[in-house]
Amino acid sequence: MGQKVNPIGMRLQVNRTWDSRWFAESKDYGDLLLEDLRMREFIHKDCVQAGVSKVIIERPHKKCRVTIHTARPGVIIGKKGADIETLRKKLTAFTDSELHLNIVEIRKPEMDAKLVAESIAQQMERRVSFRRAMKRGVQNAMRMGALGIRVNVAGRLGGAEIARTEWYREGRVPLHTLRADIDYAHHEALTAYGIIGVKVWIFKGEILEHDPQAHDRRHAEAQEGAVPRQPRRERT
Q1: CATH T-level fold of 7-105
Q2: CATH class given for the domain over 109-223
């Protein structure tokens, strides 16, 4: 039987790159990595209503640049920027470097795997039928332009005595194709019957060039309303 791997990890340095983008000496590496983990955990907990998808951390010389990708930037920024200043002061406690905080809006949250998984989990916690939540997430993603989406839910579905796994897919999700631009995320729903795991895969097209920055560039073009470039396949 084939083993499952994380679709994002398998494509690192092919058409994606890491969310922590820095180099360090061996003696400093562990401390900086721990800083990243603590900052990400704090941001996801503190900005739970903001729909945070991912946190990118870069470390230029003696500085720390944190970029938060969120579906609701107004929640983080607050009135006249008051909340973002508070968040910056809180994050400063995690690092000795000079901190710079950037906010990037996600224009199409229906096509972001992390936000789709969180939405399905939140609906299940409000006792919405898991099948209805799954189909709603799939339909919204396909309507916004996704080429394919798959949703897995696993646990005591509907309060059943025996845990099971159910999935729903629409379109194509080519997990074996390395050039495929696939977004993946996992979230847990804390229901009265126990924890239910939610996994989401979203296929957004193919990236033919071998470029670790290609995913970020396509994302930026989509945010600006441009059609992501599809390079031509050379004929042989």
Answers
A1: GMP Synthetase; Chain A, domain 3 (3.30.300)
A2: alpha beta
